[in-house]
Design brief:
By secondary structure, this protein is α+β, with helices and mostly antiparallel strands. Helices cover 49% and strands 12% of the residues. It has 2 domains: 116 residues, 3-Layer(aba) Sandwich (D-Maltodextrin-Binding Protein, domain 2); 118 residues, no CATH class. The protein is built from 10 helices and 8 strands. The strands form 2 sheets. Strands 3, 4, 5, 6 and 7 form a 5-stranded mixed β-sheet that branches. The chain is globular.
């Protein structure tokens, strides 16, 4: 990250990454989800936990080869999960599927005898799409958090952290998640009316958060007036930093929302 101020993407916070870059406060949480076929009305789920798969002789289970899910099972310090990896890697015919959609299709076509495991951000979206015949277990394995990445010691970290916290307090991040991961299986809804209601509420939330950001920006600008000029070899980076801090607050707020939308669109593209 020598040529950029901020990196936005599906970046999970990991200790080895924190050695070379700084992370903001997390804006999204994820983990490994387990997806099963929805049983007939009144019948229990075939399993309640991923560990139950070890004791099942009827169910096969798999994931995407080369994925983070596969790496988790292959390298887990937990002997049960390593045993599950051994079973997956030696089962024939293969239990692996190359895409999320193919894995979901296999769950549907297996008459309840195949279980697919993948990252929860993908699973929660796909489970909420018609024909609404899949269920994601409540228990997530290997929980992780997504955040923005910045250069070590960046002055932008505190500003972005504050903006993310304000977006969370205003419910904007939750609204973005619900809008793009909205389940079509939980209830019938009027899409146009929902979009209109959310748009009006977003405008109200934006005005509320913008007022808070405006006051804090004015305070920061007063502090910058007494801050000594940056050294020459940091001039390029600091110029961009000052430019960001002096933008209109509503633009900063909108820019951060665009970053979230970019991450969401990247995730949904991966699902196709």
């Amino acid at each position: 990250m020598q040529e950029a101020d901020v990196a936005a993407g599906a970046l999970s916070v990991r200790p080895w990454r924190e050695e070379i870059i700084d992370f903001t406060v997390p804006f999204m949480e994820s983990g490994i989800a387990t997806v099963v076929k929805r049983p007939p009305e009144g019948e229990p789920l075939p399993i309640e936990s991923p560990r139950d798969l070890l004791n099942s002789t009827k169910l096969r289970y798999g994931c995407i080869p080369g994925s983070l899910t596969q790496a988790f099972f292959r390298t887990s310090p937990d002997k049960d999960y390593r045993k599950m990896w051994h079973i997956m890697s030696t089962t024939l015919p293969s239990v692996f599927e190359w895409t999320s959609r193919k894995g979901m299709a296999r769950v549907r076509e297996s008459n309840g005898r195949y279980v697919f495991m993948l990252e929860s951000v993908f699973a929660s979206y796909l489970v909420g799409q018609p024909p609404c015949d899949l269920v994601m277990l409540d228990i997530l394995l290997n929980p992780s958090e997504y955040a923005f990445a910045l250069q070590k010691g960046s002055k932008l970290t505190k500003k972005i952290n504050r903006a993310i916290k304000q977006l969370k307090e205003a419910g904007v991040i939750d609204k973005l998640y619900r809008r793009w991961w909205k389940s079509k299986c939980s209830r019938r809804y009027n899409r146009k009316q929902d979009q209109k209601d959310e748009s009006l509420k977003d405008e109200s939330d934006t005005r509320h958060v913008t007022r808070k950001v405006e006051k804090e920006r004015e305070s920061e600008e007063r502090e910058e007036e007494v801050t000594p000029p940056p050294r020459k070899h940091h001039r390029k980076l600091e110029t961009r930093t000052i430019s960001l801090s002096k933008c209109q607050s509503v633009h900063n707020f909108a820019l951060l929302k665009v970053c979230f939308l970019c991450i969401i669109s990247t995730s949904l593209t991966y699902l196709m």
